[in-house]
Design brief:
- The termini are far apart.
- This protein has helices spanning 15-23, 32-43, 63-71, 81-89, 107-118, 128-140, 178-188, 205-222, 248-266, 278-281, 314-318, 427-431; strands spanning 5-6, 11-12, 27-31, 51-56, 75-78, 97-100, 122-125, 145-150, 173-174, 192-196, 228-230, 271-274, 286-296, 301-305, 324-327, 333-336, 347-352, 373-375, 383-387, 409-412, 418-422.
- Strands 3, 13, 14, 15, 16, 17, 18, 19, 20 and 21 form a 10-stranded mixed sheet that branches. An 8-stranded parallel barrel has the order 4-5-6-7-8-10-11-12, surrounded by 6 helices.
- It contains 12 helices and 21 strands.
- It has 439 residues and is an alpha/beta fold.
- Helix 8 (205-222) packs parallel to helix 9 (248-266).
Amino acid sequence: MTMTNFGPTKLEATLIPKIAQQWGTPVYLHDQEFIENSCEQLLNMPNAYGLHVRYAMKANSDRTVLRVVTNKGLDLDCSSLDEAARAFSAGIPYSRMMLTTQEVPTGEERAELEAMIKAGLKYNVCSMTQFQLIADFAKANRIDLSMRVHPGAAGGGESATRDTGSEYSCFGVHLNDVPQVKALADEKGLRFTQVHVHIGSGGDPEKWRQNIDRELGFVKSYFPDATTVSFGGGLKVARMPGEKQADIAALGAYAKQRITEFKEATGRELQMEIEPGTYVVANSGHIITRIIDKKLTNELNFLIVDGGMELLTRPLLYGSEHPIAIVRQDGTLLSSEYDSTPTAGLKSFGIVGRCCESGDSVRLDNDGNIVPVLIAEPEIGDYVVIGGTGAYSESMSPENYNSHRKPGAVMKTKSGELVQIRKKQVREQIYQNELDVQL
């Protein structure tokens, strides 16, 4: 039987040319129903004394995505003042946000931070310097704080660049410094009512379980006022066929057991918090690109598409793999890596973008060499659809490299309607802040 849809969202191939004709290519595509289902799965995660789910908005900061997520009941974890202000501009109150940042705001930004905190934003202290600068303000306004702790434990991420708990990562107050920060807080009568540890993205679930044990240990030792314990995010998502996704029910059951045991040992009930981003949106997204050229060398056949590393930098940054589907101009699905189909009749192609950069490819090996993809051979004008791109693609990529413009984005609603949620950047926006200086 001929397949007509593909991927976790069961995307109908016939929609691809319709979207391309209406909004052009390249273009980002999101699926509302998938995002909402992901939110519901997380909210139903087993827990002992309550569960609070925050969405790590750095994964995808589009205001429509933020509204879908928060309307389902998730709050936000923000990585910068600008992220918090951006979410507020989308209609989300600061009382639904926590700020976990490397920034040390001063001047106008410091005043902005204080206003946000007074409006209900939770401040997650991530360094000694941050604590020293916020302490008097927090005391004067009787504000409880959160602390992100650096556990000094490696292996929490899928790769070294996504490991945020090792000694080669600088996120949070290192466990060695926690007693000093806590002593200073005690002197000022300040309370840390929440403790947070995030060890990395997409790593081994066993490391996530170990983090639960480790974190509860130092909550018991150092944080008598803590009522909430955040185990971070990083829940692994299976983008490619054959990858194993994190079993959040099993992880939740383990956390529930350990928090229950903590209550039995200490008499303290802790609310659990998590802050996933990828799990919520990654597999909701696709990038639709059009084949604009075909080339070959002595070694490799190439397809050149009209969107590459400036739309999706994860292959170049992390060596990440994303599934590829090939769709004809008439909407016929030629081949899809999502499906376990025979490789007979397929051909190897290096799929590359239009940037002047040798790493501009949808698939690279650990040395940065282009890895060919087995696909049904398409023609110029057909579509290459890149899956698993709902997270850390449009929110992270260098869209103006080579002065390419950031593409628009489309959302498929629960009713099946296609709506544009962001326009394509106009050329003038690339250079609108440049000054016409005469030298």
